[in-house]
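Q: What does the predicted 3D structure of L-seryl-tRNA(Sec) selenium transferase look like?
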Amino acid sequence: MKHLLRELPPIHELQHSVQFDDLRTRLGQTPEQITKAIQQVINDIRYVLVNGMMEEQITSQNLPDYIWAQTEQKLIQLERDRITNVINATGTVLHTNLGRARLSEKAIEHVVKVAGQYSNLEYNVEEGKRGSRHDILEEMLVEVTGAEAAMIVNNNAAAVYLVLRALAKEKEVIVSRGQLVEIGGSFRVSSIMEESGAHLVEVGTTNKTHLYDYENAITEDTGMILKVHTSNFKTIGFTQTVESEALVELTQKSEGVIFYEDLGSGSIFDFREAGIGEEPVVREVIESGVDLVSFSGDKLLGGPQAGIIVGKKVLIDRLKKHQLARVLRVDKMTFAALEKTLLAYITGHARQELPTLRDILKPLDEIEAQCSQFITTLEPYQEIYDVEMVESTSQIGGGTMPDVHIPTFVVAVTHRHYTAKQLAEKIRLGQPAIIARIKDEKVLLDFRTISKDEMDQVGTVFIELAKD
């Protein structure tokens, strides 16, 4: 292997070769970028040779060709999009790993428009002076939630942290043991509270907490009662929780104690009317008298990632003035997407315009029609695929309504030459990537989360795979 190490050409020699100019012409890369790629390739080859790897793959004869082939691959990878579109065939509407809520067409158009031009993000056009980004969407949030005031931060975990830090630092915060949840990425309410400087006071038990538990825990050091939405799980059986109305009355009798409810998902649309889950509507929680409520922008709301805080004006004003408000603020593109999302609710068009609501409420006959269309597409390839439509269930996802399973239809696909795991991998590595489920050695495609615009793409991926 030492002779191959000695045969590795110097970088300056490669820079003056025909292949260097060819890459520059074909790929449009700068000399500096091509040089950097060559250096990385030479370092990689030196490493594998020193460690005795790829001994039969690299020879004196093919070494130059190998170097240029690897360099070209690195340059191609450089321009490859790191974040790309995928087709969600899992049936999980708010799939956290796949970006949660899809934006509406109007939201996307508004984001593009605002991103490509200057905007009034922090400028009051009417008065001709500096404005505040906190004011941009506050009126809309007040309208859809019924709160006195509102503000926006970058996600709901940030909202929880800001509220605790700004309003309960060095004070006791009472939380039911049954609500000390852990959300994705091992983020725990107790840990966030510790970081905020608030002092956690646990009351009740995992399955039962009574009003008297809260009453007995209130002291002169109590600054807040926190009620947390139990994302990702639901406790059933011998359970007891305290309703928000009762906690409102308790805090109103306790001077200086704030009642803050972290709703997590935060729905503006009442899914209960469609027979889906028991998720409370933000307006109802506000009307119960809660001081502050926070929720996510990219879950049931159907908008961009954001943490939305609504409630009493005197408290929201304190949050806006806190130094962390600047640290946790959102950018113009988030405001643009959220504006059109909220407008859909205000104008009564949310069910028609927002993909999240459309998918959750998607009629069974529409899903069945899409399944039939896909099956028809694969009819010429019956010698390759076995397909059948079967009844199944979809999930909301994103830690929302974990016990809710929505009836759906899926297409179960098997391939004559691939296992279910191999087939799922093949379509996942296709263009575009299709993410599906596996059950009983079959790949399941749930068309609840596949839009009509994606139907041709899904068909093409399977057709191309049949030709391999």
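A (community wiki): The structure tokens above were generated from the sequence. The chain has three domains: 2-79, 86-94+360-467, 103-353. The two ends are 38 Å apart (CA to CA).
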